[in-house]
Each structure stands twice: as C-alpha cells, then as structure tokens.
Specification:
By secondary structure, the chain is mainly beta. Helix content is 3%, strand content 61%. The strands form three sheets. It has an eight-stranded antiparallel β-barrel. It has a four-stranded antiparallel β-sheet with strand order 9-16-14-11. A four-stranded antiparallel β-sheet has the order 13-12-10-15, with no helix packed on it. The radius of gyration is 18 Å and the shape is elongated. About 7% of the residues have low confidence.
C-alpha cells in the first residue's frame, strides 16, 4: 500500500508490503527496510530489524499521526495525491492547535520577531509535548494562549504579521 505523508516541509512516499507472519517491507522515499512488527499489550509496537529493536507509539488524530519512535517525536499528516495543504491559513498568519491539549509553555510575546522554525509555544497532548513552530519568519501579531490553558483543535494560538523589523 502506498501513501503520502507530510513530514514538516517534506512529502514522504511510504509503501508497506506484508511479508506474512508479522514481517513487513517498509519503503520511505528511496530507503527500504524489512521489519518484524509485534503489537504490545499497551498498544505500542515493537519493531525489530537490521538496526536493532525500537518501540513505536502511534496516536491517530484525524489525518495526522503523532509518532514516538524511541526518544524521537514526529507529526505526520496524510496527504491526498494531487492535493496540497490549504495555504490560505498559513498566508493569513494564524497558527492553530493541531489537537486538543494544554499549553505548557509560551515562548513569544506580541512584537517579537521570529524566524522560520523557531519554537513559539508547547502543547501537551496524548502524553507528549508538541512544539508549535513558526512556519515562516515574521513578527508576532497576537498570542491567545497562556500556560495551563486548555485548547481545542483548531483554536488560534499565535498570529504572525508579514516580515520582521
């Protein structure tokens, strides 16, 4: 089965093929590996391959997958071939909560100049802390989140104005 996933700025093509008896061939872009996959009682997955054993936790939320692989966290979003993410929200400068959670840190204030990729705030959801980063350089126009605040998916957290300076 082939699927497309957004990983930050990159679109990854993932192909999985069952080899039977819990074994899978997984190809991400041009890299392919064979894995033995075992579902653990706590819902996590034990992945064994040539590079050793890792534990993965995958939390689906709509078209997104929050993945913890060992100590690494990833947020992947399912892409439909031929469709690209709606750019109007990003162009308008709003940053929204990707899922319901609690704001744990706010690292910017109105008027701050930020660079693309700079952490703006942290959201705790699904037993993981997710860093919300600036999608582009700009100036913080508004911050509508504060530490300890519970937010719903889609809630506007930070607004960026074009350009810095």
């Amino acid at each position: 089965m082939k699927t497309l996933w957004r990983d930050g700025e990159h679109i990854r093509e993932v192909e999985t093929t069952s080899l039977g008896a819990g074994r899978w061939k997984v190809r991400v872009d041009a890299a392919a590996i064979d894995l033995s996959v075992e579902a653990m009682p706590d819902g996590k997955l034990r992945l064994a391959g040539d590079h050793g054993v890792n534990v993965a936790e995958v939390t689906p939320v709509g078209s997104q997958r929050f993945v913890r692989l060992g100590t690494l966290d990833f947020v992947l979003e399912r892409e439909v071939e031929g469709r690209r993410r709606d750019a109007s929200r990003a162009q308008a400068g709003g940053l929204e909560a990707p899922m319901p959670g609690v704001i744990t840190k706010v690292m910017v204030v109105v008027g701050d100049d930020v660079t693309k990729g700079q952490p703006l705030l942290a959201l705790e959801a699904m037993k993981m802390e997710h860093m919300i980063r600036a999608p582009r350089a700009g100036r913080v126009k508004s911050v509508s989140a504060s530490p300890g605040q519970m937010v719903q998916a889609g809630a506007t957290l930070v607004e960026l104005a074009d350009g810095a300076g």
